[in-house]
Design goal:
heterodimer, A: 110 residues, 6-stranded mixed sheet, B: 111 residues, mainly beta, 7-stranded mixed sheet, 4-stranded antiparallel sheet
Chain lengths: 110, 111
């Protein structure tokens, strides 16, 4: 079982819609969770971090964490074509190891 | 300069060449990482340095040799590479066990 799992997609949403990206992790004791955005040919860019259960909002982005279900998600409201990228979920495990998921490819259709 | 920088940004080399990739972080972090990312593939962690000590080597072939002279600099020495080693090589830094910040990467092509 992989430490962090994501649906590779591709996920396609129309412009202006809500994009929902999901991630599950295997280590129940994990404490820190991150979302990165990676444009094609570029390096990953940190966009959100979340540490406690519930929602965390930053502009059009909302991260949601449910530790009981070992599930973290990223919602992108009012999706724009410029949001088209691969989104990587990352988790710090109880062993303080940092694990990336394989990423979900998002395409926002104008 | 700020953040994490990498040089060169692009590198083309033959299989018999020796070259080095350089990474420098200006964030005061104490951990540095090398990743490989082949076309349309996930990130592959290669090496981890915490406080200049190598703590992880994910079964990387010996033709890749890392060096971390201090907490701000990280090198990846390359020799006798294969065409399948062509990829984007990413450096990242962090405070140990915290979120990682990436450099722009070096696009390597092995002929």
């Amino acid at each position: 079982q992989k430490e962090v799992e994501q649906n590779s997609g591709p996920l396609s949403v129309p412009e202006g819609a809500i994009a929902s990206l999901n991630c599950t992790y295997s280590d129940r004791g994990s404490q820190s969770f991150f979302w990165y955005r990676q444009y094609s040919g570029k390096s990953p860019e940190l966009i959100m971090s979340i540490y406690s259960n519930g929602d965390k909002e930053d502009g059009r982005f909302t991260a949601q964490l449910n530790k009981a279900s070992q599930y973290v998600s990223l919602l992108i409201r009012d999706s724009q074509p410029s949001d088209s990228a691969t989104y990587l979920c990352a988790v710090t495990s109880t062993g303080n190891q940092f694990y990336f998921g394989t990423g979900t490819s998002l395409t926002v259709i104008p | 300069e700020t953040g994490v920088t990498q040089t060169p940004r692009h590198l083309v080399m033959g299989m018999t060449n020796k070259k080095s990739l350089k990474c420098e972080q200006h964030l005061g972090h104490n951990a540095m990482y090398w990743y490989k990312q082949s076309a349309k593939k996930p990130l592959e962690l290669m090496f981890v340095y915490n406080f200049k000590e190598q703590t992880e080597n994910n079964s990387v072939p010996s033709r890749f040799s890392p060096e971390c002279p201090n907490s701000s600099h990280l090198f990846l020495h390359l020799h006798t590479l294969q065409p399948e080693d062509s990829a984007l090589y990413l450096c990242a830094s962090s405070q140990v066990h915290n979120e990682q910040f990436f450099g722009p990467g070096t696009r390597l092509t092995v002929l």
